Amino acid sequence: MSTLKEKIKIIIFGTDTKAGKLFDVVLIVSIVLSIITVMLDSVVEYNQQYGHIFRIAEWTFTIMFTVEYLLRIFCIRRAFSYIFSFFGIIDFLAILPTYLSLFLPGTEVFAIIRVLRVLRIFRVLKLVQFMGEADLLMRAMIASRRKVFIWLFLVMNIVIILGSVMYLVESGNAGFNSIPRSIYWAVVTLTTVGYGDVVPQTSLGQGLASFIMVLGYSIIAVPTGIVTSEITFAAKSTKLKRCVVCGEEGLNENAKFCRNCASKLTG
User: Fold this and answer.
1) pTM for this structure?
2) Rounded-to-integer distance, Cα 228 and Cα 56, Å
3) pLDDT, averaged across the chain
4) Which of 22, 133, 157, 248 has its Cβ near the most Cβ atoms within 10 Å?
5) Given 1.20.120.350, 3.30.950.30, 1.10.600.10, 3.90.1200.10, which CATH number is that of 2-127?
6) Which range has the top average pLDDT, 120-129, 134-143, 153-162?
């Protein structure tokens, strides 16, 4: 039994063997086709003409993903380390809506959750050459989260102040009939989106709008610099092992087993 588990684990979690590579290719193709099925099924014309085909395809993909989900639980030592991991939850949510629609009529609305299957592609990509860059970016984002939060708090204060000032300048005219709507305009202008649904009419208001537009370009560059500096720092840090089963990071380079799920580390 242990030998069977090890073989299944190598195929599902590994990419060094032909069987493992074939499994990854089949999984990616299945995920892409299932997402296409979900999108086409949402088109009324296609649903009326090919609805039965979409249902057959959906159940086929759901059964495939269910078997894969159960095999992942079967082949690792600590099942809960996978079940409650990020990708474990995504895998579960990817198959849940179809079964809910079968046992609980009226829950078809939750079928939109199936689009989460696209996130499962990252599981396959993380096992190959792209995961190093993805880990680097993730570490940089986590390390800069406090600085980015402070930056967002500052921007929130800026748009509240500028929106309130614009409300006073325009005297409630030209769409600036409340402070919340003026704040909405400030957000749209500061981010350089510019919907044009609310436009200042006075010269002072237009001058303030020009200032906010220029300010927006400088503010947008701030989080970019923060994350870039963290990426540079993370790239210089020591590279440690990462468990492909539960996603545990920071494992010692000489470790043989994962400290979280006890899975054997390879590569």
Assistant:
1) 0.56
2) 46
3) 79
4) 248
5) 1.20.120.350
6) 153-162
